Amino acid sequence: MAGIRYISARLAQQIDDELMGVAGAFSLDQLMELAGLACAQALAKVYTKEKHPRVLVCCGPGNQGGDGLVAARHLGMFGYKPTIYMPKPGSKEHYRRLQIQCNNMNIPTLPPSNDVASLASAIKSSDVILDALFGFSFRPPVRAPFDAALPLLARSGLPIVSVDIPSGWDVEAGDIGVEGALNPQVLVSLTAPKQGVKTFSGRHFLGGRFVPKLLEEKHALNLPLYPGTEQIVELPSQESEQKL
Fold first, then answer.
1. Taking 50 as the threshold, does the pLDDT of residue 230 lie above it?
2. Full-prediction pTM beyond 0.90?
3. Which tens digit of pLDDT belongs to each residue from 102-115?
4. How much is the average pLDDT of 82-108?
5. Pick from 37, 15, 91, 40: which is nearest to 29 by CA?
6. 136 belongs to an annotated ligand binding site
7. Does the pLDDT at position 168 exceed 90?
8. Does 141 carry a binding-site annotation?
9. Which of the seven top EC classes does this enzyme belong to (predicted)?
């Protein structure tokens, strides 16, 4: 059987469009809810709330950040103590609604600011970072206000779980040496893994149990089976794949 397909940025965008078009008939809210739930479940599988209860959830202004907000809410439901950091909050209606949902859970949010003092303080009182800053549309260089925050997160010494693509990486070329680019221990690819993470050596999960067979077969994604009722499935490590 052919291995799972690692997809380009262009194909990832096309599949997103098809998921929310006639072929998939999903709304953005549905996809974001399922993606965020998968991210929360992956973090919980690797970093238990008994040992890593305090999660710093870092959210960008786009759909990646929306996934992070959904994950923060679910982590709160799971019994974690999330704190949200949004250097630049999203302006779209669905993003604002996700913020309100987190507020209703009494999940604290750091003030958006170029001053990273509050972020530095939050890092000191956190056990793990959920990285949902940049999506697959990221292009260097890293601009303000992220340029000050990203190196701080990279040097934090905390374990990092990245959503879809580690922040600072190119979606197709991978780690291209951007200053402050994150090097997570855990990656949660959504829909299908992107070409840029082929060299990722940490624990790698696939999330987003929503791709219909029609689209999976059309694009030859060769997705693995999700176990039981899980929203995630762990992919083989690069080391084990090389042995096969």
1. yes
2. yes
3. 999 999 999 866 66
4. 95
5. 37
6. yes
7. yes
8. yes
9. isomerase
Averaged pLDDT score across all residues of the chain? 93
Residue 138 assigned ligand-binding role:
yes
Query: Model confidence at 140, in pLDDT bands (50, 70, 90)?
Result: confident
CB burial readout 68-95, b (16+ within 10 A) else e: bbbbbbbbbebebebbbbbbbbbeeeeb
Q: Annotate 29-75 with DSSP letters as a single string.
A: HHHHHHHHHHHHHHHHHHS-TTT--EEEEEE-SSHHHHHHHHHHHHH
200 is in an annotated binding site: no
Q: Residue 29, annotated ligand binder?
A: no
Domain at 9-243, CATH homologous superfamily? YjeF N-terminal domain (3.40.50.10260)
Q: Is 87 annotated as a binding residue?
A: no
CB-based contacts of 193: which residues, under 8 Å, 6+ apart? Answer: 4, 6, 7, 204, 206, 235
Find the mean pLDDT for residues 86-109. Answer: 95
SS (H, E, C) 105-162: CCCCECCCCCCCHHHHHHHHCCCEEEEECCCCCCCCCCCCCHHHHHHHHHCCCCCEEE
21 annotated as ligand-binding? no
Does 90 appear as a known binding residue?
no
Percent of the chain topping pLDDT 90: 82
Q: Are 129 and 160 in contact (CB under 8 A)?
A: yes
Predicted local distance difference test score (pLDDT) of residue 112: 67
pLDDT, tens digit, 9 for 90 and up, residues 157-167: 999 999 999 99
Q: Is 202 annotated as a binding residue?
A: no
Q: SS in 3 state form for 176-211?
A: CCCCCCCCCCEEEEECCCEHHHCCCCCEEEEECCCC
Q: How far apart are CA 174 and CA 87, in angstroms?
A: 23
The answer to whether 137 is a known ligand-binding residue is yes
